[in-house]
Amino acid sequence: MPEATRDDPAVRFCALCGAALLRQERQGALRPCCPACDHVHFFDPKVAAAAWIEEDGRLLLVRRAVMPQRGLWTIPGGYVDAWEDPASAVLRECAEELGVAVELTGLLDIVAGREHPRGAGFVIFYSARLCTRNLQPADDVDQVGWFGAHELPVLAFEATRSMTARWQAALGAQKPA
Predict the structure, then answer these.
(1) Do 26 and 99 form a contact (C-beta atoms < 8 A)?
(2) Over the range 151-162, which residues count as b (16 or more CB within 10 Å of their CB) and which as e?
(3) Which of the residues 15, 24, 118, 152 could staple to 33 if both were Cys, CB 3.0 to 4.6 A apart?
(4) Which residues of 7-45 are buried (b: 16+ CB within 10 A; e: fewer)?
(5) b vs e for 99-109, b when ≥16 Cβ sit within 10 Å of the residue's Cβ?
(6) pLDDT tens-digit series, residues 20-79
(7) pTM above 0.90, yes or no
(8) Secondary structure class of 142 (helix, strand, coil)
């Protein structure tokens, strides 16, 4: 018996012909299928990209001004647009959220896991450094702050919590005994 997919109940009609969709087994899972034109709707993951900016043992975080998780803190970043390179998305998001240019210095990790129906399925974390210093919160951010590993505010997303926990562990491992 195929496992049911986690799908969006709002997807009820075929994007190609408009017929009502039925859930049918296709490629090992129940998927929305069109009985009229045989189109199968696949739920593709959303991808986000974020800039891990660390200086002098402190991490740059932004406070969300919008839902979900309004008022909580996260890494600067956001969704990757269709046909956009994830690295370019990070540069764009830092300009939009922080009002600054950044230079990407490496790929840190790709964290999988979707927390809510409109959330990212994958977050690509890049290490980055600021090219300019005048941080101006804007777009969906209302505050910017630098935080040490043991003074983090309440964090918005599991991907951010996972990365900061690894950062804290790595810094703890570096402390002399």
Answers:
(1) no
(2) ebeebbbebbeb
(3) 24
(4) beeeeeebeeeeeebeeeebeebbbbbbeeeeeebeeee
(5) bbebebeeebe
(6) 999 999 988 899 999 999 999 988 889 999 999 999 999 999 999 999 999 999 999 999
(7) no
(8) strand
Amino acid found at 107: L
Nearest in space to 142 (alpha carbons), one of 94, 78, 73: 73
Give 47-174's CATH code, choosing from 3.90.79.10, 3.10.580.10, 1.20.1510.10, 3.40.50.300.
3.90.79.10
Side chain identity, residue 168 = Q
Q: 């919160």: which residue's tokens?
A: 137
Residue 139, both tokens: 């777009």
Of 115, 98, 109, 121, nearest to 163 by C-alpha is: 109
Looking at residue 2, what is its pLDDT?
37
